[in-house]
Specification:
Four Helix Bundle (Hemerythrin (Met), subunit A), 11 helices, GntR_C, DNA-binding, WH-like_DNA-bd_sf, transcription, FadR/GntR family transcriptional regulator
Length: about 260
């Protein structure tokens, strides 16, 4: 049984392809073979990583890519699931990055714009249950200690929950496609003393603005949190981006959307 399981999860490594891409292909292969069926739940990230003998961060990036391709979906508090009806172009989805390599600072600037907007939208669109879940995810982040893997997992879960609460499908898809490219850098950042504690405290500020239904405050708190990380990037060639200065009435009035929107 163990031998059969090992064979199922064995990766065909290729020096010319990123590891998360190879993992994503393997998961898709397992779906096609019926190991994971439409509507079914995948093994958790730790188990997949153990079976494939890779780091959990690489598995997470692969899962995020498959989510962007609408092959998988993540359900709050439950895990990763195979979509019941994959889109017809799932085998050859359009790529936002199209195989190109961008500077970390390029990706991070886009991330700041997307997450600031997501926090603003979530402040008026998220329901009480979603905000409570976001708060709990930050509690888990605070309790992660010095484990970089757990810090990364809880950080990604916190930010991802806010993005999903924006209820803007295009924003969610774009964010999902770029955020995986930043996983390795984010993992390394949590090895710096003091980053984890500061991260949790700044998350807490975002949550307070979400609870108050303050879109401008939520955007400013998220931008401030991300800009602190951005300012420490090694590949910034110009003056650091400043996203915190704006007039108090600069925030637009977002339209409310129900959960089906």
């Amino acid at each position: 049984m163990d031998t059969e399981r090992t064979r199922h999860f064995e990766l065909k490594l290729d020096a010319g392809r990123p590891l998360p891409e190879v993992i994503a292909d393997k998961i898709r292969e397992l779906i096609d073979a019926g190991v994971y069926k439409p509507g079914g739940r995948l093994a958790n990230e730790s188990e997949l990583a153990r079976n494939m003998r890779v780091a959990r961060s690489s598995v997470r990036t692969a899962l995020q890519r498959l989510e962007a391709q609408r092959v998988l979906e993540v359900k709050r508090g439950l895990g990763w699931y195979v979509r019941r009806v994959p889109p017809p172009d799932a085998q050859h989805p359009p790529s936002l990055l199209d195989g190109r390599t961008y500077r970390i600072s390029d990706l991070f600037e886009l991330r700041i714009g997307l997450e600031g907007l997501a926090a603003s939208l979530a402040a008026v669109r998220a329901d009480e249950g979603e905000i409570e879940d976001i708060w709990k995810l930050n509690q888990q982040h605070q309790e992660a200690g010095d484990d970089p893997d757990e810090l990364l997992r809880t950080d990604e879960a916190f930010h991802g929950a806010i993005v999903r609460a924006s209820r803007n499908d295009l924003l969610i898809e774009t964010y999902t496609r770029i955020v995986g490219e930043l996983s390795e850098w984010r993992h390394q950042s949590f090895a710096v003393p003091g980053v984890a504690l500061r991260s949790a405290r700044e998350h807490g500020k975002v949550v307070r603005y979400l609870r108050n239904g303050d879109p401008g405050g939520a955007r400013a708190a998220m931008n401030s949190h991300l800009q602190r990380l951005y300012d420490g990037l090694p590949d910034i060639v110009d003056e650091p981006l400043d996203t915190t200065q704006s007039a108090p009435d600069a925030e637009p009035e977002w339209q409310l959307r129900d959960s089906a929107g």
